[in-house]
Amino acid sequence: MLTSDYAENSTNTQLTPLLEEILGELEGLNQTISPHDYIIALAIVLLNEADFHICTKRKRALHIPKNWKSEETSVYEMCFYLKSVSKVQCKLVAIPLEGTLILNFFPLMEGKRTYSLTVDTLRYYNTFANIPSKKYKNLKEISHRFKDALSTPVRSDVLISAGLTGPSLQAIPTELKFKILGMLDVYSLTRMAQCCSEFNVLCSEPQLWKQLLHRDFPQFSCKTEDSKDSYRTSVRIRNNRRINGKSLKDC
Question: pTM, whole model, 2 decimals?
Answer without folding.
Answer: 0.72
